[in-house]
Amino acid sequence: MNSPTTDPSGASGASGAESTLAGANPYLETAPLQAGDTVRLIAPSGPTDEESLLRAIGQLESWGLRVVVGDNVRARHPRVKYLAGTDEQRRADLVDAWCDPDAAAVIALRGGFGAMRLLDGIDFDLMRRHALRRDGRPKLLTGSSDITALHQAWDHHLQVATLFCPMVGNDPFKNSSVVPAEVATWLFEPWGGRELGFPAGDNGAAGEEWSISADNQVGNQHKSTTPAADPAASRPLSRARTLVPGTAKGRLGGGNLSLVAAGMGSPELAGVRELRERLGPSILMLEDVDEELYRLDNLLVQLVRGGWFDSADAVVLGSWQDCAEIDEVEALVMDYLGDLGIPIVSEMGFGHDPDAPSTPLGVAVTLEAQAQGRPRMWVDRACG
């Protein structure tokens, strides 16, 4: 492979990005961000209000980050009220943010709808040339829900790890006593060895205070980059349970069920039957919000008929906020996937749960789904 190249903007070239991203994820041993880093805040989907925008900026700045807001964050589509500006405006903010040589991360303000509309107009060769920070590590994309479309595209075109997490412009950052600090731990702490989902009631994790490591300081000041969680507050305890027992290792993928299904047939999900052979084992996660059972049924039919689960070595279900009852969702999933002979677990919490935990995508994880007892999934540590 050719040696890395550098363009006039200071971003590493495509060959350098490809060589770095093909190896172990650098976030396993080093944190994605540190105080003083520049992050770009954009609205690639739905519109926001001024109060939510200012609250989001304040939250990021409280962590010691330098926030650069997209030029079109406050824009509104002239005709379609559910879009934050035109496709061209939102796409421009996304591309400009990712290609900023000073940016360490691109942070989606909120979800809604519209991210998938941006993909066909993106020059992913350009994005690949700007996939690395000045220090040679990949930039980070964060967000969830509608941002699933971007996670899929970044995985397919750029092969970078991303973070599926609650978004700073949404209600969990305002109403949850645990979400801000939990997201901060994924931004400011290494990922290797971290368990995913809510903690068990018997491991001592519930009720603990969360704060950024004292080593993560600004200059020589002993400055905490995020306030500790309320000592009286505790994370929700794990509700995870095994539907089909087994053990699996693989790259974690997936996201919001509606967005994954909408992506079937797209370049990002083309050739899904060859994914396992090309990329190795995979563990696929799914969640959704505000969907009736018959809609979930239809979406799962799309994925089954499209062969999406053919690449799965395990399936992990998150939250189904304001959908059908969880036992109905589980029965539906088992109707379609129960005979595949792969582990299936439910209620891991990620997605639209008011206290949803964060989940990295594009990283190697291990799932242990015991027939009796709580299933566990964690990010594998770096080899060597």
Description:
The protein is α/β, with parallel strands linked by helices and 384 residues long. It is built from eleven helices and 13 strands. The strands form two sheets. A seven-stranded mixed sheet has the order 6-10-9-8-7-12-13. A six-stranded mixed sheet has the order 2-1-3-4-5-11, with helices on both faces. Helix 10 runs parallel beside helix 11 (326-337).
List the SSEs and their pairings:
Blueprint: H1 14-21, E1 38-42, H2 50-62, E2 66-69, H3 87-99, E3 103-108, H4 124-129, E4 140-143, H5 148-158, E5 162-164, H6 172-175, H7 179-188, E6 241-244, E7 246-256, H8 257-262, H9 275-279, E8 282-289, H10 293-305, E9 314-321, H11 326-337, E10 344-346, E11 359-361, E12 364-369, E13 376-379
Parallel strand pairs: 1-2, 1-3, 3-4, 4-5, 7-8, 8-9, 9-10
Antiparallel strand pairs: 5-11, 6-10, 7-12, 12-13
Principal-axis shape equals globular
> What is the share of helical residues?
25-40%
Mean pLDDT rating: 87
SSE arrangement, N to C = HEHEHEHEHEHHEEHHEHEHEEEE
How far apart lie the N and C ends?
23 Å
Oligomer: single chain
Count of helical regions: 11
What are the low-pLDDT stretches, counting only 5+ consecutive residues below 50? Answer: 1-23, 203-232
Largest sheet: 7 strands, mixed
Structural class: alpha/beta
β-strand amount = 15-25%
According to DSSP, the number of beta strands is 13
- C-alpha Rg, in Å? 20 Å
How do the strands of the widest beta sheet line up side by side? Answer: 6-10-9-8-7-12-13
